[in-house]
Write a structure and sequence with these properties.
The chain is built from 3 helices and no strands. It has 89 residues and is mainly alpha-helical.
């Protein structure tokens, strides 16, 4: 069970990295100057950023499961994986 979560976390981390790079390129090419969504690129950017955030969260979850199986993880390790997940909400 946990090896599947770790594997999905790794794949999600790679996908999140690609989405972060893609969002940076899209922001560079079409800088959103307005608050309202008027074009397809505005919606595309928001979807890409949402996928990047979700992928990052799944990657952190996979790392948490991978490290929690070691005997040295403890409370500090659990807090270390909880802090990024609460900071991105």
């Amino acid at each position: 069970m946990s090896s599947g979560i770790v594997r999905w976390g790794g794949l999600a981390g790679v996908a999140a990295g690609v989405m972060w790079v893609l969002s940076a390129i899209l922001i560079f090419l079409a800088t959103p100057q307005r608050v309202s969504f008027n074009s397809f690129s505005d919606y595309l950017l928001q979807i890409i950023l949402l996928i990047a955030y979700v992928g990052t969260m799944v990657a952190i979850l996979g790392l948490h499961y991978l490290q929690s199986e070691s005997g040295r993880y403890g409370r500090i390790g659990a807090a270390g994986s909880l802090v990024p997940s609460s900071a991105t909400r």
